[in-house]
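Design request, tokens follow.
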């Protein structure tokens, strides 16, 4: 039996980029918040070179923006821009659910179920930050279930851009529990393996999510 190749080791820049993406996607970093190179270097135990590289990559993706003065900031959008981004994200999420339902395997099912279990645990505990991260992981599990890394990357880009805005709709423990509970209908639709049902289920889920996010911003 041929031995599998070990996973390539992440560079410091990739590690920092990935951590910032998760924090931005979960709303831990606010729109307009300045990211300090020195502070990030200290926090991640790295030199400023990989920090600059990570910030440069995220700026190129539109997740961060260069300020008029020195510094890089989490991107902020007008309500019109946010509505347009949500509209595009709505279509990508629905497509991911449709494709995932057609390609489900045991691993994909177990990853989605495990992510949902983490969402329920965090919501029940009233752990807002934990829930935001678990919610991102839940949607990432659906993206991976498509078996299409290009589709997954496209969907992830929208989650990065909208994370800080979506996070604002979660204020109380009841908000977290309602969101976690709404996942179950979506899971049932995807696990039905009927592409139309899965797509419509995701549309319903994301429409409510976007309406709540726009109200909060």
């Amino acid at each position: 039996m041929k031995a599998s190749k070990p996973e390539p080791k992440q560079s410091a820049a990739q590690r920092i980029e990935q951590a910032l993406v998760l924090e931005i996607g979960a709303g831990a970093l606010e729109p307009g918040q300045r990211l300090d190179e020195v502070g990030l270097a200290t926090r991640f135990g790295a030199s400023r070179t990989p920090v600059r590289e990570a910030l440069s990559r995220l700026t190129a993706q539109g997740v961060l923006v260069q300020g008029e003065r020195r510094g890089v900031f989490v991107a902020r959008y007008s309500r019109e821009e946010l509505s347009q981004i949500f509209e595009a994200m709505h279509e990508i999420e629905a497509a991911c659910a449709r494709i995932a339902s057609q390609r489900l395997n045991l691993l994909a099912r177990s990853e989605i179920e495990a992510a949902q279990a983490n969402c329920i645990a965090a919501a029940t505990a009233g752990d807002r930050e934990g829930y935001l991260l678990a919610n991102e992981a839940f949607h990432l599990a659906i993206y991976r279930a498509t078996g299409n890394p290009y589709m997954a990357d496209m969907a992830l880009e929208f989650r990065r851009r909208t994370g800080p805005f979506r996070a604002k709709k979660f204020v109380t423990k009841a908000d977290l529990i309602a969101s976690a509970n709404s996942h179950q209908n979506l899971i049932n639709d995807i696990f039905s393996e009927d592409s139309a049902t899965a797509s419509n289920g995701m549309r319903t889920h994301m429409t409510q999510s976007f309406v709540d996010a726009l109200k909060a911003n």
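Comment from the thread starter after seeing the answer: thanks! Residues 96 and 143 are 6 Å apart (CA to CA).
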